[in-house]
Amino acid sequence: MQTIRGFRDILPEHIGLWQKVEQEAAALFTAFGYREIRIPVIEKTQLFARSIGEATDIVEKEMYTFEDRKGDKLTLRPEATASISRSYIQHKMYAVDPVRKFFMIGPMFRRERPQKGRYRQFYQIDAEVFGVESAYIDSELIFLLNELFKRLGLTGLTAHINSLGCPECRPAFQKALMDFLGDRKEVLCDNCTRRMKKNPLRILDCKVETCRQALEGAPATVDHLCPACEDHFNIVRSTLENQNVDFSVDKSLVRGLDYYTRTAWEIQTSALGAQSAVAGGGRYDGLVKELGGPQTPAIGFAIGFDRLVEVMDQLGKAPKEEPLDLFILPLGEGAMEKAYAWSCELNLLGITTQTDFRGRSMKSLMKRADKLNARYVLIAGESELAEKKLILRDMNTKDQVNIAMDCLADELKTIFKKNNKG
Ligand code: HAM
Fold first, then answer.
1. Which of 331, 308, 279, 237 is nearest to 22 (CA)?
2. Which of the residues 199, 219, 364, 405 has an alpha carbon 20 to 30 A from that of 86?
3. Fold for domain 12-169+225-314?
4. Best substitution site from 48, 124, 154, 157 to test ligand 1's pocket, by max atoms within 8 Å of Cβ?
5. 324-330 and 100-109 as β-strands: parallel, antiparallel, unpaired?
6. Main-chain phi, psi angles of 219, to 5 degrees
7. How far is ligand 1, taken at its centre, from the CA of residue 274, in Å?
8. Which H or E run contains 35?
9. What is the DSSP string of 217-270?
10. Cα–Cα dist 300/283, whole Å
11. What is the Å distance from ligand 1's center to 368 Cα?
């Protein structure tokens, strides 16, 4: 049996990097007042179709959708923003305190063509803020991303930001785009022709060569912002500049989900070939209302966790596995019972200890201690047990000392304290 295409196991030898990122992210978000939220992995299909947009790649082609036994149409979540917005509305969070900051870490599902950095089950680290219209929160989110990547020692990332305007200024932009396209509309691909009616902005993101050519020199949203959107974008930029966050304005950035308004951004890398976006986000001031809640400004981002880990791996940022403090080497049945009791006791004291119950020879157990990278080995053979004196071997220096069996835990505590442990 094998995993399904695009799905994979993350094995214990790779988990250190994932845990390091999770800890750094949770600590940073918590310090900034973001609280963890956990949302279901499955929701009604309608939630994603209405939020992400019927005419997006995700909704048209990539969702894992099925009918359950009662015929309800359900979907494995392809992202978290829709679900967190649903939760905000369902629990009437806006009534108690409309300003809410969330983060979540978990798996998402999109049936894309698998390749390096692109999986069908992948993980996101997601942050969302509800109820704040001010541009300072846009800056805070981009600042947080930058800070997290800095703490993780990531280099070679670039932040691309753009403003997509709002319902006030978008119609004028769309008209300018249509005027520009004029006769060129004929050469657009079928997707663009279809999308033109629902969200013409998406044409700007098309990767088909003929569309790209047709769009050369096309108008940009940033050049058609209303005064309020322009002020907003100016504050985002100046705040980031004041905080020394590197970014460039990317007029062609539109993002692949329909809910965005105003600020949108991506953090890109050149380390993963075609899959250049390590994180993406933006404002979605219309979504809560669209889903049946009160008008609520909102904004957030998601980091592609798998991609982040791959970049960190390439940069050699995987944490070293901690060596084992102690391996107890039991020789004989009576020794095994003792070894079991001591290993439990020592592990509870914070001295990482393992033993072996397979009744192996001294030679093979020493090999096992080496394999486990044990700092010390405690030899408990029949004669040692009879004399109530065990042998402690330092695996670095090969020195051996005797330890009285009755004060084993105390002796080891002292030794490990000297080694800055325990
Ligand atoms: P997104 O751009 O679709 O945005 O995804 C965010 C990130 O998830 C991407 O930049 C990428 O790193 C990662 N990602 C997406 N698809 C895959 C895949 N198939 N395999 C591996 N990684 C992938 C969103 O999902 C929005 N919900 C972000 C957001 C939050 N906007 C506002 N709040």
1. 308
2. 199
3. BirA Bifunctional Protein; domain 2 (3.30.930)
4. 124
5. unpaired
6. -65, 155
7. 14
8. strand 35-36
9. T---GGGG--HHHHHHHHHHHHHHHHTT---EE-TT---S-TT-EEEEEEEE-S
10. 7
11. 43
Local confidence band at 422 (pLDDT 50, 70, 90 cut-offs):
very low
List the chain domain ranges. 12-169+225-314, 324-415
State in Å: Cα 24 to ligand 1 middle.
19
Which residues face 103 on adjacent strands? 36, 127
Cβ 287 under 6 angstroms from ligand 1? no
Q: Which two tokens stand for residue 70?
A: 């009662």
Q: What is the atom index within ligand 1 of the atom nearest the CA of 278?
A: 12
Tokens 């999986």 label which residue?
A: 119
Cα separation, 25 vs 33, in Å, equals 12
Which tokens go with 326?
């102690």
Tokens standing for 355? 């033993």
Q: Among candidates 210, 108, 223, 118, which has minimal Cα distance to 165?
A: 223
CB 78 near ligand 1, within 6 Å: no
Alpha carbons 213 and 211: distance in angstroms, whole number = 5
CA 414 to chain centre: 40
Closest C-alpha residue for ligand 1 atom 25:
79
Name the residue among 281, 276, 246 with its Cα closest to residue 263. 281
**Helix 15-31 and helix 305-314: axis angle, to 10°?**
120
pLDDT digits (tens, 9 = 90+) for 328-343: 999 988 899 999 999 9
Q: Which parts of 110-165 are beta strand (E)? A: 121-130, 158-163
Structure tokens at 40: 């279901």
How far is 243 from 254, CA to CA, in rounded Å?
Answer: 25
Pull the structure tokens for residue 263. 């600020």
In which residue are the tokens 């439990």 written? 344
pTM: 0.94
Cα–Cα dist 298/93, whole Å: 13
Please check whether the domain covering 324-415 is classified as CATH 3.30.1330.10.
no
The two tokens of residue 232 are 């907003």
